[in-house]
Amino acid sequence: GTTLKASAAEKGRYFGAAVATGKLSDSQYVGILNREFNSVVAENEMKWDATEPQQGRFNYTGGDRLVSHARANGMSVRGHALLWHAQQPGWAQGLSGATLRNAAINHVTQVAAHFRGQIHSWDVVNEAFADGGSGGRRDSNLQRTGNDWIEAAFRAARAADPGAKLCYNDYNTDGVNAKSTGIYNMVRDFKARGVPIDCVGFQSHLGTSIPGDYQANLQRFADLGVDVQITELDVMTGSNQANIYATVTRACLAVSRCNGITVWGVRDSDSWRGTDDALLFDRSGNKKPAYTSVLNALNAG
Ligand code: G3I
């Protein structure tokens, strides 16, 4: 293939990008998006603060705009993110206990039901594990409602949109480490107890190196009976950038249950990482060496 989406499709994978819907009026941005990508995810517009700014009053403007752009252009949509400790609306930040739990589960139900049938994979819960060596949960208002908040969210999401793959999504899970192993143990437990989980998202916000066991880590999750997806890929600029992008691409292709790759933005100027210049297109919209390296990796074999 000659584009990311065509080459990924030849290997049975999708190739996606995070989109800020405000940029859908930027013709250079949309030109690259429509040419190269066949999956999109809202960078912010499907998060809790955006979709339920006041309790029980839902706003789907941005999310609907993205879904409509995707449908018109033959793209599928990842959903991000139903529950997260960050980007909660102010009203939710002020709740606790059973009141918060009920509000959170209602949020999952309402949002998943609104987009029912239109999302290929939902990040049901985002970033619930702690960094460092504990392997345990991150403290948050949601976690303080009880350790079962994650499984309650997955059950509610399944009931609201039975056709979507339901993912757990996190960062700093790029190799076998305490955090990824904590998540691995949760997924194993969910599968054993019939909690509906279908996939694990590996954000893959990477610096100037990548753990040597990146692929093996994906594989150990796949071996639990879930799909894996690279969900927010971006890589620090520098002499390793193109190689790291290729390594991630090859790892996904080598793991049969890896469904696809999403990069967290289109051009370097669109990235949350600012001067890291972490994406595949430069600030003028030109293909970078990292782009060519991903395309070649997709086309290899
Ligand atoms: O909504 C306000 C807007 O009203 C205001 O005018 C504007 C002024 O700066 O700020 C807007 O909010 C910003 C929002 O993005 C939308 O642009 C927030 O300040 C800003 O913090 C927020 O950043 C997002 C960040 O998540 C928040 O945690 C980034 O765009 C987004 O790329 C980033 O994405 C996360 C994933 O969801 C989860 N994994 C990590 C990843 C990178 O941090």
TrEMBL record:
Residues 1-297 form the GH10 domain. It is an enzyme of class 3 (hydrolase). The keyword Signal applies. Transmembrane segments: none annotated. GO terms for molecular function: endo-1,4-beta-xylanase activity. It catalyses: Endohydrolysis of (1->4)-beta-D-xylosidic linkages in xylans. Its EC number is 3.2.1.8. This is Beta-xylanase. The keyword Hydrolase applies. Keywords: Carbohydrate metabolism, Glycosidase, Hydrolase, Polysaccharide degradation, Signal, Xylan degradation. The chain holds residues 32 to 332 of 488 of the full protein. The active site is at E232 (nucleophile). GO terms for biological process: xylan catabolic process. It comes from the Bacteria. Belongs to the glycosyl hydrolase 10 (cellulase F) family.
